[in-house]
Amino acid sequence: MYGAVVCPRCRKGFAVDLERRTSSCPHCGRRIQVRRMKTHFTSESASLTAQAVRELNRRGRRLKVDQGPRERVLPMSPSRIETLVQDLGEFDQDELEAALGGRTAMEAEEILRRVLQMGLVYEVSPGRYRKA
Ligand SMILES: [Zn+2]
Questions:
Q1: What is the pLDDT of residue 103?
Q2: Average pLDDT of span 87-95
């Protein structure tokens, strides 16, 4: 299993073998504990992981790399957002992000702000939301 990680020192992405305990950054040589790294992408395929690393380095750390082929994500219209919220019922930002399928955390945050403004959801407890 391979994973795409971001170097804590130079902030560049690289691929690691997740079965190994340590690895080092090919860009700056920093040694890392594989287990402690947040993986932005995991795959059995070294070439898919390398592709994810290229994407990470091209678009920066905020990017959440797609896990393989997936249908194109359509822009979120208010009615789609409403349907999504109805389906979720009660959720937190991570669940919303997962339901958005491959969109970035930033977009989940933005959508959350919008549905709160629209009165579609309310905050039941800090960080938990429920459809109104
Ligand atoms: Zn580095």
A1: 64
A2: 90
